[in-house]
Amino acid sequence: MKTLFTLFLLALLATTAPAWAQHRSAKSRAAKLAATRAAQEKAERARRAEAAAKLAAAMPVSSGPDADELLRIEESWAQATIRNDAETITHLLADEYVSVNSLGLVTGKSDVLAAIANDEAKCDINKPFEYIVRVYGNAGLVVHNTSFRGRMNGNITSGEYRTTHMFIKRNGKWLVVANQTTFVVPERMTLVSKNAPKGDSHERKRKRNKDDVAGQ
Predict the structure, then answer these.
(1) What span, in angstroms and rounded, lies between the C-alpha atoms of 105 and 121?
(2) In the beta sheet, which residues pair with residue 167?
(3) What confidence score (pLDDT) does residue 136 get?
(4) Helix (H) or strand (E) run with residue 35 in it
(5) b/e string for 145-177 if b means 16 or more Cβ within 10 A?
(6) Are strands 173-186 and 106-108 parallel, antiparallel or unpaired?
(7) In the record, which residues are listed under signal peptide (predicted)?
(8) Each residue of 24-34: pLDDT tens digit?
(9) 37-81: per-residue pLDDT in tens?
(10) Which of 9, 123, 132, 192 is least enclosed, having the fewest CB within 10 Å?
């Protein structure tokens, strides 16, 4: 009887071992893939940090009141997008303002203001960082990254973007005349709190027949 039980146990182990081994192998492969992805992301972050440092060294931030004013405008613009403050944005953008967003769409000042008025553009996170500021007389250039999360025409968009803003000083006032945005990293919400609000869950239905707003 003991011999029969032993044979039965061996047979049971023989039938279950392959499934157990496959499960262990699958977990091992998943762990290796996760480790590989983590290593690649770490290497990419290090590469980008090194590139940003080299670029910043080659193009140091301009100093002086004009450079300070450009940085103030950048911060004011970012905060205005969070508040959907069309009045502030109106005064920051030149009438001939033109933007190429991360999808390659070209929009103007009227498109930006219309998107705000029609409740088609919202964001709850817009945090610029890694600035490069240059002033050339009555012209200015600002390049920076931004962590962004919001909705464009009802579609959720988030990640890290790099923007280039061109300024012109007209009648003693700096105005944004052009913007170009490039999508850098998805879902890497640099400098973003995990407890940030996720937006209005009661978003009303609206038509989605307009291009994405400029700037992101």
Answers:
(1) 15
(2) 140, 176
(3) 93
(4) helix 2-58
(5) bbbbbbbbbeeebbbbbbbebbbebeeeebbbb
(6) unpaired
(7) 1-21
(8) 777 788 888 88
(9) 888 878 877 777 676 666 666 655 667 899 999 999 999 999 998
(10) 9
By CB atoms closer than 10 A (0-12, 13-18, 19+), residue 12 is exposed
pLDDT tens digits, 146-199: 888 877 666 677 788 899 999 999 999 999 999 998 888 654 444 443 333 343
- Spatial CB neighbours of 46, under 8 Å, sequence gap ≥ 6: none
What single string gives the DSSP state of each residue in 126-195? Answer: EEEEEEEEEEETTEEEEEEEEEEEEEETTEEEEEEEEEEEEEEEETTEEEEEEEEEEEEEET--TT--TT
Rounded distance between C-alpha atoms, residue 210 and residue 23, angstroms: 49
Q: Which residues 6+ apart lie within 8 Å of 45 measured at CB?
A: none
Residue whose token pair is 């390049």: 143
Is the Cα dihedral 33, 34, 37, 42 positive or negative?
Answer: negative
CATH no. for 65-186: 3.10.450.50
The structure tokens 């973007």 sit at 161
173-186 and 93-100: which strand pairing?
A: parallel
**Structure tokens that stand for 21 in this block:** 């081994």
Q: Are 117 and 86 in contact (CB under 8 A)?
A: yes
